[in-house]
Design a protein that fits this description.
Blueprint (H helix, E strand, L loop, with lengths): L1 H16 L13 E10 L6 E11 L4 E6 L5 H8 L7 E6 L2 E2 L5 H11 E4 L11 H11 L4 H14 L15 H13 L5 E5 L7 H16 L4 E4 L3 H4 L4 E6 L2 E7 L3
Parallel strand pairs: 3-8, 3-9, 6-7, 7-8
Antiparallel strand pairs: 1-2, 1-4, 4-5, 9-10
Helix pairs in contact: 1-3, 4-5, 4-6, 5-6, 6-7
The structure holds adenosine-5'-diphosphate and magnesium ion.
Protein backbone atom coordinates (compact mmCIF):
# COMPACT_ATOMS: atom_id res chain seq x y z
CA UNK A 1 0.00 0.00 0.00
CA UNK A 2 2.76 2.42 0.98
CA UNK A 3 4.62 1.90 -2.29
CA UNK A 4 1.49 2.46 -4.37
CA UNK A 5 0.63 5.77 -2.75
CA UNK A 6 4.25 6.93 -3.04
CA UNK A 7 4.08 6.17 -6.77
CA UNK A 8 0.93 8.21 -7.11
CA UNK A 9 2.49 11.17 -5.39
CA UNK A 10 5.44 10.92 -7.77
CA UNK A 11 3.12 10.98 -10.79
CA UNK A 12 1.27 14.00 -9.47
CA UNK A 13 4.58 15.73 -8.73
CA UNK A 14 5.84 15.07 -12.28
CA UNK A 15 2.69 16.53 -13.76
CA UNK A 16 3.02 19.57 -11.51
CA UNK A 17 6.61 20.41 -12.43
CA UNK A 18 6.91 19.33 -16.06
CA UNK A 19 7.06 21.92 -18.83
CA UNK A 20 3.91 22.05 -20.96
CA UNK A 21 4.12 19.24 -23.47
CA UNK A 22 7.03 17.51 -21.77
CA UNK A 23 4.90 14.58 -20.65
CA UNK A 24 3.11 14.34 -23.95
CA UNK A 25 4.27 11.21 -25.71
CA UNK A 26 3.37 11.92 -29.36
CA UNK A 27 2.77 8.28 -30.18
CA UNK A 28 0.30 7.57 -27.41
CA UNK A 29 -3.39 8.20 -28.04
CA UNK A 30 -4.87 11.13 -26.14
CA UNK A 31 -7.55 8.87 -24.65
CA UNK A 32 -7.54 5.14 -23.99
CA UNK A 33 -10.60 3.69 -22.26
CA UNK A 34 -10.83 -0.06 -21.67
CA UNK A 35 -13.70 -1.86 -19.98
CA UNK A 36 -14.93 1.30 -18.28
CA UNK A 37 -17.96 0.79 -16.05
CA UNK A 38 -19.67 3.22 -13.71
CA UNK A 39 -22.22 2.20 -11.12
CA UNK A 40 -24.09 4.74 -9.01
CA UNK A 41 -25.67 3.73 -5.71
CA UNK A 42 -26.08 0.17 -4.50
CA UNK A 43 -28.73 -2.45 -3.89
CA UNK A 44 -32.21 -1.41 -4.98
CA UNK A 45 -31.07 2.01 -6.13
CA UNK A 46 -28.08 0.78 -8.14
CA UNK A 47 -27.75 2.28 -11.63
CA UNK A 48 -25.22 0.99 -14.13
CA UNK A 49 -24.59 4.20 -16.06
CA UNK A 50 -21.68 2.74 -18.10
CA UNK A 51 -21.46 -0.99 -18.75
CA UNK A 52 -18.12 -1.52 -20.50
CA UNK A 53 -16.77 1.27 -22.72
CA UNK A 54 -13.74 0.61 -24.94
CA UNK A 55 -12.58 3.62 -26.92
CA UNK A 56 -9.32 5.03 -28.23
CA UNK A 57 -9.09 8.64 -29.39
CA UNK A 58 -5.99 9.59 -31.34
CA UNK A 59 -4.29 12.97 -31.31
CA UNK A 60 -5.99 15.39 -33.68
CA UNK A 61 -9.29 13.52 -33.77
CA UNK A 62 -12.63 15.37 -33.49
CA UNK A 63 -15.19 13.09 -31.83
CA UNK A 64 -18.85 13.71 -31.10
CA UNK A 65 -20.43 11.58 -28.37
CA UNK A 66 -24.16 11.17 -28.92
CA UNK A 67 -27.02 9.39 -27.25
CA UNK A 68 -30.47 9.86 -25.76
CA UNK A 69 -30.98 11.37 -22.33
CA UNK A 70 -29.87 8.86 -19.70
CA UNK A 71 -27.57 6.92 -22.07
CA UNK A 72 -24.44 7.81 -20.06
CA UNK A 73 -22.98 10.81 -21.95
CA UNK A 74 -22.42 13.01 -18.89
CA UNK A 75 -21.04 10.10 -16.91
CA UNK A 76 -18.56 9.36 -19.70
CA UNK A 77 -17.68 13.05 -20.01
CA UNK A 78 -17.00 13.24 -16.25
CA UNK A 79 -14.65 10.27 -16.48
CA UNK A 80 -12.86 11.52 -19.62
CA UNK A 81 -12.58 14.94 -17.95
CA UNK A 82 -11.06 13.46 -14.78
CA UNK A 83 -13.97 14.92 -12.81
CA UNK A 84 -14.91 11.44 -11.61
CA UNK A 85 -13.33 7.99 -11.66
CA UNK A 86 -14.74 4.78 -13.11
CA UNK A 87 -16.02 1.91 -10.98
CA UNK A 88 -13.88 -0.51 -13.01
CA UNK A 89 -11.75 -0.50 -16.13
CA UNK A 90 -8.71 1.41 -17.27
CA UNK A 91 -8.31 5.01 -18.40
CA UNK A 92 -5.14 6.64 -19.66
CA UNK A 93 -5.10 10.32 -20.64
CA UNK A 94 -2.13 11.44 -22.69
CA UNK A 95 -0.33 8.26 -21.62
CA UNK A 96 -0.90 8.91 -17.90
CA UNK A 97 -2.81 6.25 -15.95
CA UNK A 98 -5.46 8.08 -14.04
CA UNK A 99 -7.36 5.16 -12.53
CA UNK A 100 -7.63 5.59 -8.78
CA UNK A 101 -5.84 8.94 -8.65
CA UNK A 102 -6.88 10.90 -5.60
CA UNK A 103 -8.75 14.20 -5.91
CA UNK A 104 -5.59 16.29 -5.67
CA UNK A 105 -3.88 14.46 -8.50
CA UNK A 106 -7.06 14.49 -10.62
CA UNK A 107 -7.29 18.25 -10.28
CA UNK A 108 -3.71 18.62 -11.46
CA UNK A 109 -4.43 16.39 -14.46
CA UNK A 110 -7.54 18.44 -15.29
CA UNK A 111 -5.68 21.72 -15.10
CA UNK A 112 -2.74 20.50 -17.18
CA UNK A 113 -4.42 18.37 -19.78
CA UNK A 114 -7.98 19.47 -20.44
CA UNK A 115 -9.74 22.59 -21.66
CA UNK A 116 -13.42 22.45 -20.69
CA UNK A 117 -16.24 24.11 -22.64
CA UNK A 118 -19.69 24.01 -21.02
CA UNK A 119 -23.19 24.57 -22.34
CA UNK A 120 -23.68 27.53 -19.99
CA UNK A 121 -20.25 29.11 -20.78
CA UNK A 122 -19.35 29.34 -17.04
CA UNK A 123 -17.61 32.70 -17.38
CA UNK A 124 -17.00 34.79 -14.28
CA UNK A 125 -19.48 37.69 -14.27
CA UNK A 126 -18.40 41.35 -14.00
CA UNK A 127 -14.92 40.28 -15.11
CA UNK A 128 -13.45 41.15 -18.51
CA UNK A 129 -13.06 38.57 -21.26
CA UNK A 130 -9.32 39.05 -20.92
CA UNK A 131 -9.29 38.25 -17.19
CA UNK A 132 -11.58 35.26 -17.74
CA UNK A 133 -9.18 33.84 -20.31
CA UNK A 134 -6.14 34.53 -18.12
CA UNK A 135 -7.56 32.54 -15.22
CA UNK A 136 -6.26 29.04 -16.11
CA UNK A 137 -2.79 30.57 -16.40
CA UNK A 138 -3.13 32.17 -12.95
CA UNK A 139 -3.77 28.69 -11.51
CA UNK A 140 -0.65 27.49 -13.31
CA UNK A 141 1.54 30.24 -11.89
CA UNK A 142 2.29 31.93 -15.24
CA UNK A 143 3.58 35.50 -14.71
CA UNK A 144 1.42 38.54 -15.36
CA UNK A 145 2.97 39.72 -18.64
CA UNK A 146 3.06 36.29 -20.28
CA UNK A 147 -0.44 35.59 -19.05
CA UNK A 148 -1.79 38.76 -20.61
CA UNK A 149 -0.07 38.12 -23.95
CA UNK A 150 -1.27 34.52 -24.15
CA UNK A 151 -4.84 35.57 -23.31
CA UNK A 152 -4.72 38.26 -26.02
CA UNK A 153 -3.45 35.67 -28.50
CA UNK A 154 -6.21 33.20 -27.56
CA UNK A 155 -8.94 35.87 -27.87
CA UNK A 156 -7.49 36.90 -31.22
CA UNK A 157 -7.59 33.26 -32.34
CA UNK A 158 -11.35 33.17 -31.66
CA UNK A 159 -11.92 36.51 -33.39
CA UNK A 160 -12.61 38.58 -30.26
CA UNK A 161 -9.58 40.88 -30.14
CA UNK A 162 -11.96 43.88 -30.23
CA UNK A 163 -14.03 42.61 -27.27
CA UNK A 164 -11.25 41.82 -24.78
CA UNK A 165 -12.30 44.42 -22.22
CA UNK A 166 -15.99 43.59 -22.33
CA UNK A 167 -17.67 41.71 -19.50
CA UNK A 168 -19.77 38.61 -20.20
CA UNK A 169 -23.11 40.47 -19.92
CA UNK A 170 -21.91 42.87 -22.63
CA UNK A 171 -21.39 39.99 -25.08
CA UNK A 172 -23.82 37.85 -27.10
CA UNK A 173 -24.19 34.15 -26.26
CA UNK A 174 -22.04 33.20 -29.23
CA UNK A 175 -19.33 35.66 -28.20
CA UNK A 176 -19.44 34.38 -24.60
CA UNK A 177 -18.95 30.84 -25.83
CA UNK A 178 -16.00 31.99 -27.97
CA UNK A 179 -14.46 33.55 -24.83
CA UNK A 180 -14.97 30.18 -23.12
CA UNK A 181 -13.24 28.46 -26.05
CA UNK A 182 -10.32 30.92 -25.74
CA UNK A 183 -10.14 30.14 -22.00
CA UNK A 184 -10.13 26.41 -22.79
CA UNK A 185 -7.31 26.88 -25.32
CA UNK A 186 -5.03 29.27 -23.52
CA UNK A 187 -3.09 26.71 -21.50
CA UNK A 188 -2.49 24.52 -24.60
CA UNK A 189 -4.30 21.44 -23.25
CA UNK A 190 -4.02 18.00 -24.84
CA UNK A 191 -7.80 17.78 -25.10
CA UNK A 192 -10.70 20.17 -25.63
CA UNK A 193 -13.74 18.66 -23.91
CA UNK A 194 -17.06 20.30 -24.75
CA UNK A 195 -20.42 19.44 -23.15
CA UNK A 196 -23.31 20.54 -25.41
CA UNK A 197 -21.33 23.66 -26.40
CA UNK A 198 -24.09 24.97 -28.67
CA UNK A 199 -27.01 23.93 -26.45
CA UNK A 200 -27.76 27.51 -25.34
CA UNK A 201 -27.09 29.22 -28.68
CA UNK A 202 -29.27 30.39 -31.56
CA UNK A 203 -28.59 28.90 -34.98
CA UNK A 204 -26.27 31.67 -36.15
CA UNK A 205 -24.09 31.53 -33.01
CA UNK A 206 -24.16 27.74 -33.22
CA UNK A 207 -22.72 28.07 -36.72
CA UNK A 208 -19.99 30.45 -35.47
CA UNK A 209 -18.96 28.15 -32.62
CA UNK A 210 -18.97 25.04 -34.84
CA UNK A 211 -16.88 26.86 -37.47
CA UNK A 212 -14.44 27.76 -34.71
CA UNK A 213 -14.25 24.15 -33.48
CA UNK A 214 -13.66 23.04 -37.08
CA UNK A 215 -10.76 25.50 -37.44
CA UNK A 216 -9.24 24.29 -34.15
CA UNK A 217 -9.50 20.72 -35.42
CA UNK A 218 -7.80 21.75 -38.68
CA UNK A 219 -4.97 23.19 -36.54
CA UNK A 220 -4.48 19.75 -34.99
CA UNK A 221 -6.39 20.07 -31.72
CA UNK A 222 -8.04 17.00 -30.22
CA UNK A 223 -11.72 17.63 -29.52
CA UNK A 224 -14.39 15.56 -27.76
CA UNK A 225 -17.86 17.08 -27.91
CA UNK A 226 -20.98 15.79 -26.20
CA UNK A 227 -24.16 16.56 -28.14
CA UNK A 228 -27.60 15.12 -28.69
CA UNK A 229 -28.10 16.92 -32.02
CA UNK A 230 -27.35 15.12 -35.29
CA UNK A 231 -26.57 18.29 -37.22
CA UNK A 232 -24.02 19.31 -34.57
CA UNK A 233 -22.43 15.84 -34.57
CA UNK A 234 -22.19 16.07 -38.38
CA UNK A 235 -19.36 18.60 -37.92
CA UNK A 236 -17.14 16.09 -36.10
CA UNK A 237 -14.86 13.62 -37.85
CA UNK A 238 -16.16 10.68 -35.86
CA UNK A 239 -19.44 9.98 -34.09
CA UNK A 240 -19.72 7.60 -31.13
CA UNK A 241 -23.27 6.75 -30.08
CA UNK A 242 -24.23 5.46 -26.63
CA UNK A 243 -27.28 3.40 -25.80
CA UNK A 244 -27.82 2.36 -22.17
CA UNK A 245 -24.20 2.75 -21.14
CA UNK A 246 -22.72 0.91 -24.10
CA UNK A 247 -21.30 2.06 -27.45
CA UNK A 248 -23.86 1.12 -30.07
CA UNK A 249 -22.13 2.73 -33.05
CA UNK A 250 -18.73 4.27 -33.81
CA UNK A 251 -18.40 5.71 -37.30
CA UNK A 252 -16.44 8.28 -39.31
CA UNK A 253 -18.25 11.12 -41.04
CA UNK A 254 -17.40 11.58 -44.73
CA UNK A 255 -14.63 14.23 -44.92
N1 LIG B 1 -24.98 10.98 -9.51
C1 LIG B 1 -25.82 10.03 -9.92
N2 LIG B 1 -26.42 9.20 -9.04
C2 LIG B 1 -27.25 8.23 -9.45
N3 LIG B 1 -27.56 7.98 -10.75
C3 LIG B 1 -27.00 8.78 -11.66
C4 LIG B 1 -26.12 9.84 -11.32
N4 LIG B 1 -25.73 10.47 -12.45
C5 LIG B 1 -26.34 9.83 -13.45
N5 LIG B 1 -27.12 8.81 -13.00
C6 LIG B 1 -27.90 7.87 -13.81
O1 LIG B 1 -27.00 7.27 -14.74
C7 LIG B 1 -27.61 7.13 -16.01
C8 LIG B 1 -26.79 7.90 -17.05
O2 LIG B 1 -26.89 9.29 -16.78
P1 LIG B 1 -26.08 10.41 -17.57
O3 LIG B 1 -24.66 10.00 -17.68
O4 LIG B 1 -26.38 11.72 -16.93
O5 LIG B 1 -26.75 10.33 -19.02
P2 LIG B 1 -26.89 11.46 -20.15
O6 LIG B 1 -25.88 12.51 -19.91
O7 LIG B 1 -26.67 10.72 -21.44
O8 LIG B 1 -28.28 11.98 -20.06
C9 LIG B 1 -29.02 7.64 -15.86
O9 LIG B 1 -29.84 6.52 -15.58
C10 LIG B 1 -28.94 8.56 -14.66
O10 LIG B 1 -30.18 8.62 -14.00
MG1 LIG C 1 -26.12 14.55 -19.65
Amino acid sequence: MEAVSADRRAVAGDIMTAEPGALRAPRTPVIELAGITKTYGSGDTEVQALRGIDMVIERGDYVAIMGASGSGKSTLMNIIGALDVATAGHYALDGIDIDDLDEGALSIVRNRKIGFIFQSFNLIPRTSALSNVELPLVYRGVGRRERRQRAIDALTAVGLEDRMHHQPNELSGGQQQRVAVARALVAEPSLLLADEPTGNLDSRSTGDVLDLMGRLHDQGRTIVMITHEDDVAAHAGRVVTLIDGLISEDRRNPA
